[in-house]
């Protein structure tokens, strides 16, 4: 079975991945925009620079063209960019070219190669290699008509890339922790929002955990606090519960009607057999009829318990309720050869229960004693002040491996179908569950011991 995932964990992972990708994408776009903008700045700077430096051209006494380049030490560049651009080399390179393409004057580094373009009095921008074979460089050329030459000014393109990288390295160093903190805050915020949004769904889950077969008739999921996306699921679950409830009611009604219909023919058959002369076959048939009658009676009890509509819980004196049941059942048990002892019936223990269900439990337990223990054994019923009732017999006890709780229906202690139907203990457990208590098999050195834990009536104690 595939393990269910947690929505808050998955959302945290998704938000983290999306945030990281967003930061990377934003950094990439910003880098591209910065580089493009930096190139535009460099091109404008070159255009201005070539116009300014065109005034530095002069003709020497010998008639040659001379360019008086101003000093441009790289140490004047502010850190941390010093050395990252052109190092000890000049930032700008130049050539002075005549109409034949002859280089009249040039710089030692970054001197642009290539023939000049048209004689344009406005700066013309281009890109190309240097005379030294390095590059590429950004080139701004300007025709100077009074000298009939072209001044070509160049700037290394790698300087722009280095400047961009340096800018982002410094930005990452200064803003990286802020970006990481922002990412953590985004993840925590997203997870908190999901947890808060799922509170209504958790309430619905808690409601679902409280729905059992016992309260199926009146418990449903209330989805008013759940998100709208879950409302169809809640409605579908409630519809399914309604269908289960309808099926349970139909099954219960069928069991009740079938049991009632079988009572009359069994009673008639028993009367006819009693009128016959005693014989082994007749006695065996009578035993079968008694077993069938008891099974039918227990099916009726199970059906009524499953319906859980004929019983009302109230405050009871446990000792008095048990004494009344034993007073009715003791004569038949004692006359058949069993002994009955009771202890704690006079204790002032008040519980929340139903007298009909308590009588049903004790009668099934006493019936089991008559079915499964030989005459001469003793039955002891004791009540404790904590609302616990113990039912003990001195018979052979239950088989090894018989469950201590959660007694399944139609599970017998032996293979003799005439000895019982396997419903008695299940009826006892279901009846105790209807009263909010528990029914279990208790450890015993010999015989069988069953414990019933009732809920105490605390209101009577405070009063």
TrEMBL record:
Record bears the keyword Kinase: yes
Listed SMART domains: HATPase_c, HisKA
Membrane-spanning parts: 12-32, 175-194
Swiss-Prot/TrEMBL catalytic activity: ATP + protein L-histidine = ADP + protein N-phospho-L-histidine
Cellular component GO terms held in the UniProt record: plasma membrane
Domain HAMP: 195-249
Residue span(s) of domain Histidine kinase: 257-458
Keyword Aminoacyl-tRNA synthetase attached: no
Region (Disordered): 105-130
CDD domains reported in the protein's UniProt record: HisKA
Subcellular location: Membrane
GO MF: phosphorelay sensor kinase activity
Record's bilayer topology term: Multi-pass membrane protein
InterPro entries named among the record's database cross-references: HAMP_dom, HATPase_C_sf, HATPase_dom, His_kinase_dom, HisK_dim/P_dom, HisK_dim/P_sf, Sig_transdc_His_kin-like_C, TCS_sensor_his_kinase
Record key words, sorted: Kinase, Membrane, Phosphoprotein, Transferase, Transmembrane, Transmembrane helix, Two-component regulatory system
First-level EC class: transferase
Top-level taxon: Bacteria
This enzyme's EC code(s): 2.7.13.3
Protein name: histidine kinase
Organism annotation: Aurantimonas manganoxydans (strain ATCC BAA-1229 / DSM 21871 / SI85-9A1)
């Amino acid at each position: 079975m595939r393990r269910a995932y947690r929505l808050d964990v998955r959302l945290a992972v998704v938000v983290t991945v999306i945030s990281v990708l967003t930061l990377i994408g934003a950094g990439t776009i910003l880098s591209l925009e910065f580089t493009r903008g930096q190139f535009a700045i460099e091109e404008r700077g070159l255009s201005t620079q070539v116009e300014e430096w065109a005034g530095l051209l002069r003709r020497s006494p010998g008639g040659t063209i001379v360019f008086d380049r101003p000093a441009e030490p790289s140490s004047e560049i502010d850190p941390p960019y010093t050395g990252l651009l052109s190092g000890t080399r000049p930032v700008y390179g130049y050539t002075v070219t005549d109409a034949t393409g002859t280089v009249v004057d040039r710089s030692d580094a970054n001197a642009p190669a290539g023939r000049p373009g048209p004689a344009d009095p406005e700066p013309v921008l281009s890109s190309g290699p240097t005379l030294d074979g390095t590059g590429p460089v950004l080139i701004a050329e300007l025709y100077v008509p009074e000298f009939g030459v072209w001044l070509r000014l160049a700037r290394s393109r790698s300087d722009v890339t280095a400047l961009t990288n340096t800018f982002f390295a410094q930005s990452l160093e200064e803003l990286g922790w802020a970006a990481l903190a922002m990412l953590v805050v985004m993840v925590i915020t997203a997870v908190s929002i999901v947890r808060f949004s799922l509170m209504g769904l958790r309430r619905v889950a808690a409601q679902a955990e409280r729905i059992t077969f016992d309260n199926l008739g009146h418990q449903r999921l209330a989805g008013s606090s759940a998100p709208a996306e879950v409302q169809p699921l809640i409605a579908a679950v409630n519809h399914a519960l309604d269908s289960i409830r309808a099926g349970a009611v139909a099954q219960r009604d069928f069991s009740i009607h079938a049991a009632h219909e079988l009572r009359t023919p069994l009673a008639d058959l028993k009367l006819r057999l009693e009128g016959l002369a005693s014989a082994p076959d007749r006695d065996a048939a009578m035993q079968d009829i008694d077993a069938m009658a008891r099974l039918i009676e227990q099916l009726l009890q199970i059906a009524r318990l499953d319906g859980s509509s004929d019983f009302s819980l109230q405050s009871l004196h446990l000792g008095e309720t048990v004494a009344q049941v034993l007073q009715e059942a003791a004569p038949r048990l004692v006359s058949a050869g069993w002994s009955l002892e009771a202890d704690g019936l006079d204790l002032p223990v008040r519980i929340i229960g139903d007298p009909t269900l308590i009588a049903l439990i004790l009668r099934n337990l006493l019936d089991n004693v008559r079915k499964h223990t030989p005459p001469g054994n003793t039955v002891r019923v004791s009540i404790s002040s904590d609302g616990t009732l113990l039912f003990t017999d001195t018979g052979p006890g239950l088989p090894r491996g018989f469950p201590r709780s959660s007694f399944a229906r139609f599970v017998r202690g032996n293979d003799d179908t005439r000895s019982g139907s396997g419903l008695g203990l299940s009826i006892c457990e279901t009846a105790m569950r209807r009263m909010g208590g528990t029914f279990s098999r208790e450890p015993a050195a010999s015989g069988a011991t069953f414990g019933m834990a009732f809920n105490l009536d605390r209101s009577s104690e405070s009063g």
